[in-house]
Write a structure and sequence with these properties.
transmembrane; Phos_transporter; two-stranded antiparallel ribbon; globular; mainly alpha; 2 strands; phosphate transport; 510 residues; membrane
Amino acid sequence: MTETATTPRKQTLDKDLDKLVHVEEATSTVARGLVAPGLALLFLALAAIFAGTYTFGEPGAIIIVAAAAIGAYMALNIGANDVANNVGPAVGAKAMTLGGALLIAAVFETAGALIAGGDVVSTISKGIIDPAAVGTPEAFVRAMMAALISSALWINLATWIGAPVSTTHSVVGGVVGAGVAAAGISSVDWHTMAQIAASWVVSPVIGGIVAAIFLAFIKTAIIYQDDKITAARRWVPVLIAVMAGAFASYLATKGLNHLMKIRQSDALLIGLGVFAVSWIGAHVLVRRQSEGMENRNQSLRRLFHLPLVISAALLSFAHGANDVANAVGPLAAIVFTAQQHTVDATVAIPLWVMIIGAAGISLGLVLFGPKLIRMVGEQITKLNPMRAFCVALSAAITVIIASGLGLPISSTHTAVGAIFGVGFFREWYTAHSKRRRAYLERKGIEFKRNGNGEADEEELEMQTTSREEIARRKLVRRVHVRTIVAAWVTTVPAAAVLSAGIFLFLDFIA
């Protein structure tokens, strides 16, 4: 009788306990989702306090503190969106883990920003608007504040929808919108704007073509050779040396140029010197790594892992050196104008402003960067170490070509365009290459599985016959292409309209 009476109570108690467990699990899941936004808000507060310690009692201290928090918000968004282009291909190619990529990028982004971030920056993004035309210093501060808020909001939206966009173009749009609202259309240098608009096309096209050329070379000279290992020993050191020389010129031109004045010819000489030294070292390393390797594509990929890791680090360093100005340039302009009560086209960036920018980019990458890293590295097209190597190499070479021709360029558009180029080239090559088909026929591949029971990638490509299957499994995903291109096209006008609205609101309440 006692057992019968207590049994229902035990069952009810168990059910109640189960409900509590489920509630705790749900609460824990929700709490984990709030950690990143909570830390971001804490960083904004700390940035404001940090700015206050340097400007307490000075003219315009309240405005500067508010601007510091907004600049920190902008830096967080740059880290969340733009840095994915540097490490995404290496992560997608499985050359490094996501955690390792976040660590490397955070360290080298910070180092690039603090070491080579520059002492002077154009506060109006390369002369897009005339500061004198804006009017009073108070109006200029409101214009820079509107540009900072609008560009940060737009990048935040782009990150949310999964579209890597140019942070430079976002700032440009914000500056244009605020300038037009403050001083009219005549205040904008439309010749400069035409050059920036041209970079929307130039950057991804050049990046895609260069990446496709290198991938075509790798396929022809190494992958579809009968003796892959011998071919790799001959050509992989050359490719690594080209990458090292390109990055040396890249850093000299776009990164270290902030520390010392380096001419284009000097940067090319630096690149040639690094090429020669790297070829010798890579020749020894590749020969040692390739000893005992099987004559298969999977073996070749291991030779590209270390170069990919190094390229991700160098791209992050150069990005930190260049793009930190997008976060702190308008902020530096606000600080100078509020303190001196005058408007100047160029100003010195205080160290505390640079620290906020560098810390914000790194923190934004760690907190919100994984989404875009996966998008760039895995969801646009399938990458392996050789394809990712072509993307990284294209990014460095394209910047050098564009700098030599005097063309404005976007690192985001270049890197993503290179991924597009790799993917679209694979589509064409799979469908049209007679050399590839002759090679597979000569090797006797008849849609069988290789000896260890794993399907070889080239066999899988030959087995794929339907267009739907091709689009689904291995080539460029059109839905991502459409989303990204649409975000690129609308970045400047959207940021401009948003900035104009914010400026008019700030002007109204002032």
